């Protein structure tokens, strides 16, 4: 099958036989630019979703110094998560803009997986570009690439007691081999989707909580910018998901 034909194949519904999910991304607002509509629907259904962010987004606003920006963006992220029913938001403390793929990052994410014991792990596009596997599209950021790739690897690390044994001896975090899927958002090669309709309005409100960041991104009215972006993305998936606006994911079963 050609790449083009494969990309136009219908998207399968996201798995629903799970109770706990862990979303691991690089920055405040990463989840709100794509996943929040799905998260709102999942938490409405009684599922638990926890957010883990590698950084506090302190290098994200040119006009605000990092030591002032970090608490501002952290507060916006917590408020944003609350809109879609997420009450637990953790920050790993890696430096914004210079996150490096490596053992330290894998260890931190594996520790989070062991703490929260999710069945579903969610992350953001780990590939070099926002285009397909053959390239194309705009260049992805180093932080997104590092965190996405480390999350995929850490899902396996979390279940192996001989990888990062100090997580057991020093933190009492026993292995968790219960991750059944890793779902990657923002991918050009999705395989699954979640209906965005029930949570779309709350996803708009959730992204709007990142007011300080959005105001430096665009000269548009912030709500117009947010609504246009999120609605357009959701509707762009509809033709592959039975005509329903949706949040697309590339799902890697484990």
Element layout with pairings:
Blueprint: H1 3-7, E1 12-13, E2 20-25, H2 36-44, E3 48-53, H3 66-83, E4 89-91, H4 103-116, E5 120-124, H5 142-157, H6 166-169, E6 181-185, E7 192-195, H7 200-208, H8 211-217, H9 222-237, E8 246-253
Parallel strand pairs: 1-7, 2-3, 2-5, 3-4, 5-6
Antiparallel strand pairs: 6-8, 7-8
Helix pairs in contact: 2-7, 3-7, 4-5, 7-9
What does it look like?
The protein has helices at 3-7, 36-44, 66-83, 103-116, 142-157, 166-169, 200-208, 211-217, 222-237, and strands at 12-13, 20-25, 48-53, 89-91, 120-124, 181-185, 192-195, 246-253. It has 254 residues and is α/β, with parallel strands linked by helices. The chain has an eight-stranded mixed β-sheet, with helices on both faces. α4 crosses α5. The longest helix has 18 residues, at 66-83.
Short summary of the structure?
The protein is α/β, with parallel strands linked by helices. It is built from nine helices and eight strands.
Beta-strand share of residues? 15-25%
Cross-sheet strand order for the largest sheet: 1-7-8-6-5-2-3-4
Q: Low-confidence stretches at least 5 residues in length (pLDDT < 50)?
A: 1-6
Going by helix content, strand content and strand pairing, the class is alpha/beta
Mean pLDDT: 95
The H-and-E topology, N to C, reads as HEEHEHEHEHHEEHHHE
The rounded distance between the terminal residues' Cα atoms is 24 Å
Radius of gyration: 17 Å
Number of strands: 8
Largest beta-sheet characterization: 8 strands, mixed
Count of helical stretches: 9
């Amino acid at each position: 099958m050609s790449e083009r034909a494969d990309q136009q194949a219908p998207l399968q519904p996201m798995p629903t036989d799970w109770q706990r999910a862990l979303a691991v991304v690089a920055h405040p607002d990463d989840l709100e630019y794509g996943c929040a509509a799905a998260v709102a629907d999942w938490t409405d259904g009684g599922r638990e979703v926890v957010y883990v962010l590698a950084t506090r987004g302190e290098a994200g606003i040119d006009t605000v110094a990092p030591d002032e920006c970090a608490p501002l963006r952290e507060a916006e992220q917590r408020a944003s998560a609350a809109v879609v029913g997420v009450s637990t938001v953790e920050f790993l403390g890696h430096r914004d803009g210079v996150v490096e793929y490596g053992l330290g990052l894998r260890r931190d994410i594996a520790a989070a997986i062991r703490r929260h014991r999710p069945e579903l792990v969610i992350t953001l596009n780990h590939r070099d570009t926002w285009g397909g596997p053959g390239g194309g599209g705009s260049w992805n950021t180093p932080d997104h690439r590092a965190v996405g790739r480390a999350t995929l690897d850490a899902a396996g690390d979390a279940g192996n007691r001989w990888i990062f044994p100090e997580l057991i001896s020093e933190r009492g975090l026993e292995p968790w081999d219960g991750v059944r899927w890793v779902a990657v958002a923002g991918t050009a090669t999705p395989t699954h989707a979640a209906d965005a309709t029930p949570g779309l309005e709350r996803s708009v409100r959730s992204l709007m909580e990142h007011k300080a960041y959005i105001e430096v991104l665009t000269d548009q009215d912030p709500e117009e910018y947010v609504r246009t972006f999120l609605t357009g993305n959701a509707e762009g998936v509809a033709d592959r998901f039975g005509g329903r606006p949706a949040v697309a994911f590339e799902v890697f079963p484990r």
